[in-house]
Specification:
- With about 140 residues, this protein is mainly β.
- The protein has no helices and 11 strands.
- Strands 1, 2, 3, 4, 5, 6, 7, 8, 9, 10 and 11 form an 11-stranded parallel β-sheet that branches.
Length: about 140
Protein backbone atom coordinates (compact mmCIF):
# COMPACT_ATOMS: atom_id res chain seq x y z
CA UNK A 1 0.00 0.00 0.00
CA UNK A 2 2.74 2.49 0.93
CA UNK A 3 5.62 0.74 -0.82
CA UNK A 4 7.83 2.47 -3.32
CA UNK A 5 7.47 0.79 -6.71
CA UNK A 6 10.56 2.59 -8.01
CA UNK A 7 13.16 0.95 -5.79
CA UNK A 8 16.77 0.85 -6.79
CA UNK A 9 17.96 -2.48 -8.15
CA UNK A 10 21.37 -1.93 -6.58
CA UNK A 11 21.76 -4.45 -3.73
CA UNK A 12 18.03 -4.24 -2.90
CA UNK A 13 18.33 -0.82 -1.16
CA UNK A 14 15.68 1.84 -1.80
CA UNK A 15 16.75 4.90 -3.74
CA UNK A 16 17.79 7.93 -1.70
CA UNK A 17 15.41 10.69 -2.77
CA UNK A 18 16.53 13.59 -0.56
CA UNK A 19 19.78 14.88 0.87
CA UNK A 20 20.51 14.78 4.59
CA UNK A 21 18.81 18.02 5.73
CA UNK A 22 18.48 19.20 9.34
CA UNK A 23 16.16 22.12 10.13
CA UNK A 24 15.90 24.18 13.29
CA UNK A 25 12.58 25.97 12.93
CA UNK A 26 11.61 29.51 13.91
CA UNK A 27 10.55 29.50 17.58
CA UNK A 28 13.08 26.78 18.49
CA UNK A 29 16.03 27.57 20.76
CA UNK A 30 18.97 25.21 21.25
CA UNK A 31 21.88 25.61 23.65
CA UNK A 32 24.74 23.21 22.99
CA UNK A 33 26.88 21.80 20.20
CA UNK A 34 25.54 20.44 16.91
CA UNK A 35 27.51 18.08 14.65
CA UNK A 36 26.17 16.89 11.29
CA UNK A 37 27.34 15.24 8.10
CA UNK A 38 24.57 17.00 6.17
CA UNK A 39 23.06 20.40 5.48
CA UNK A 40 21.78 22.44 8.42
CA UNK A 41 19.13 25.17 8.05
CA UNK A 42 18.64 27.45 11.05
CA UNK A 43 15.55 29.64 11.35
CA UNK A 44 15.52 29.52 15.17
CA UNK A 45 18.20 30.33 17.75
CA UNK A 46 21.34 28.28 18.43
CA UNK A 47 23.82 29.10 21.18
CA UNK A 48 26.91 26.94 20.89
CA UNK A 49 29.20 25.31 18.35
CA UNK A 50 27.77 24.14 15.02
CA UNK A 51 29.83 21.82 12.82
CA UNK A 52 28.79 20.48 9.41
CA UNK A 53 30.72 18.74 6.65
CA UNK A 54 28.26 20.34 4.22
CA UNK A 55 26.37 23.66 4.13
CA UNK A 56 24.90 25.75 6.92
CA UNK A 57 22.11 28.18 5.99
CA UNK A 58 20.88 30.81 8.44
CA UNK A 59 17.42 32.11 7.50
CA UNK A 60 16.19 35.68 8.08
CA UNK A 61 14.81 34.76 11.52
CA UNK A 62 17.88 32.68 12.42
CA UNK A 63 20.41 33.61 15.10
CA UNK A 64 23.65 31.84 15.97
CA UNK A 65 25.65 32.87 19.03
CA UNK A 66 28.83 30.82 19.03
CA UNK A 67 31.09 29.11 16.52
CA UNK A 68 30.28 27.93 13.01
CA UNK A 69 32.43 25.38 11.11
CA UNK A 70 31.35 24.17 7.67
CA UNK A 71 32.12 23.61 3.99
CA UNK A 72 29.77 26.38 2.79
CA UNK A 73 27.59 28.98 4.55
CA UNK A 74 24.71 31.18 3.46
CA UNK A 75 23.69 33.82 6.02
CA UNK A 76 20.44 35.79 5.83
CA UNK A 77 19.98 36.14 9.61
CA UNK A 78 22.48 36.92 12.36
CA UNK A 79 25.70 35.28 13.47
CA UNK A 80 27.56 36.50 16.56
CA UNK A 81 30.87 34.71 16.97
CA UNK A 82 33.42 32.84 14.88
CA UNK A 83 32.63 31.73 11.30
CA UNK A 84 35.05 29.18 9.77
CA UNK A 85 34.15 28.16 6.20
CA UNK A 86 36.41 25.97 4.05
CA UNK A 87 34.63 26.98 0.83
CA UNK A 88 32.27 29.84 0.05
CA UNK A 89 30.61 32.16 2.59
CA UNK A 90 27.71 34.30 1.38
CA UNK A 91 26.27 37.08 3.52
CA UNK A 92 22.89 38.01 2.03
CA UNK A 93 21.40 41.53 1.97
CA UNK A 94 19.55 40.98 5.29
CA UNK A 95 22.46 39.10 6.88
CA UNK A 96 24.55 40.34 9.77
CA UNK A 97 27.82 38.89 11.08
CA UNK A 98 29.55 40.13 14.23
CA UNK A 99 32.88 38.47 14.94
CA UNK A 100 35.69 36.64 13.19
CA UNK A 101 35.39 35.26 9.66
CA UNK A 102 37.88 32.82 8.15
CA UNK A 103 36.99 31.62 4.66
CA UNK A 104 38.40 30.84 1.24
CA UNK A 105 35.75 32.79 -0.74
CA UNK A 106 33.49 35.60 0.50
CA UNK A 107 30.41 37.12 -1.14
CA UNK A 108 28.76 40.10 0.56
CA UNK A 109 25.51 41.37 -0.94
CA UNK A 110 24.53 45.04 -0.86
CA UNK A 111 22.83 45.80 2.45
CA UNK A 112 24.63 43.06 4.40
CA UNK A 113 26.38 44.04 7.64
CA UNK A 114 29.72 42.80 8.93
CA UNK A 115 31.54 43.92 12.05
CA UNK A 116 34.77 42.18 13.05
CA UNK A 117 37.79 40.63 11.37
CA UNK A 118 38.03 38.68 8.15
CA UNK A 119 40.79 36.39 6.88
CA UNK A 120 40.70 34.83 3.44
CA UNK A 121 43.12 32.24 2.24
CA UNK A 122 44.05 28.64 1.65
CA UNK A 123 42.48 25.63 3.37
CA UNK A 124 45.68 25.01 5.34
CA UNK A 125 44.98 28.09 7.48
CA UNK A 126 41.71 26.57 8.76
CA UNK A 127 42.52 23.39 10.72
CA UNK A 128 39.07 23.16 12.39
CA UNK A 129 37.11 22.83 9.14
CA UNK A 130 36.78 19.40 7.58
CA UNK A 131 36.83 19.56 3.80
CA UNK A 132 35.05 17.20 1.42
CA UNK A 133 36.86 15.35 -1.31
CA UNK A 134 40.29 13.82 -1.67
CA UNK A 135 43.23 15.08 0.32
CA UNK A 136 46.91 14.93 -0.50
CA UNK A 137 48.98 12.55 1.54
CA UNK A 138 52.75 12.45 1.90
CA UNK A 139 54.44 9.17 1.15
CA UNK A 140 56.85 7.74 3.68
CA UNK A 141 60.40 7.73 2.38
Amino acid sequence: MFGNKNKSKSMGRPEVLTANLNTIAKGTEITGDIHSEGIIRIDGVVRGKIRSKAKIAVGKSGLIEGELYCEEADIEGQVKGSVQVSGKLTIRSHGRVEGEINTVRLIVESGAQFSGTCSMGAQSSMPNVERKGPTLQKEAV
